[in-house]
Design goal:
Elements: H1 12-17, H2 34-59, H3 65-89, H4 104-136, H5 149-176, H6 185-188
GO molecular function: transmembrane transporter activity
Membrane topology: Multi-pass membrane protein
Domain Tripartite ATP-independent periplasmic transporters DctQ component: 46-175
């Protein structure tokens, strides 16, 4: 038995075709909603503020104090507005183990109760943030002469979006007859 390798001659055209790129997959931006783009914009403002803080601190050796505050407030906006994206996609942490052992009707009822509790929680959070804004919304930021109510309104907007998205998710669960708690495989692509 020979251990010699056998090579086939290839033409220049075959070599040239190996460098051709496959057709690029189509980009679908339709899966993103309003809050996704707002959170992305706030994230980039935060990233620029952090970069400016790094540059001024370590390159110029004289940091701008306001960049840290702006980055902190942007992070608050990203978290609360971005959380509505997680509500829309049902991606928050949840425990679905018990639903595997419950009868279908009990699991369906419990899932509906969870949806209603989520809606009530976000509604109550809206009220609390609104009261908070009324009490201390006129305070100024520490390093910039701007009112903090911009930050609080971003939190309020995040809770309003989470409330709206939780209502939409609850309606979707009612229409389809199950939720992510009952059938997680239907949401992560593992269920056929």
């Amino acid at each position: 038995m020979s251990t010699a390798e056998i090579h086939r001659q290839i033409t220049a055209d075959e070599i040239a075709h190996t460098f051709e790129e496959e057709a690029a997959p189509k980009v679908d931006l339709g899966i993103y909603a309003f809050e996704d783009w707002v959170a992305l914009a706030i994230f980039w403002v935060m990233a620029l503020a952090v970069f400016l803080q790094f540059f001024t601190r370590y390159v110029l050796n004289d940091s701008y104090a306001w960049t840290e505050e702006i980055a902190t407030y942007c992070l608050i906006g990203v978290v609360f507005i971005g959380a509505s994206m997680c509500v829309r996609l049902s991606r928050h942490i949840q425990v679905d183990l018990i639903y595997r052992y419950l009868p279908h009707l009990v699991a369906r009822a419990l899932s509906t109760v969870i949806d209603l509790i989520r809606i009530a929680f976000f509604g109550y959070a809206i009220k609390l943030v609104w009261v908070y804004i009324q009490i201390i919304g006129d305070e100024s930021m520490t390093t910039i002469n701007l009112p903090k109510d911009y930050v609080y309104y971003a939190v309020l907007a995040g809770f309003v979006l989470m409330f709206v998205r939780s209502v939409q998710v609850a309606l979707q669960h009612l229409r389809q007859g199950y939720s992510i708690l009952e059938r997680p495989g239907a949401y992560d692509g593992f269920e056929g």
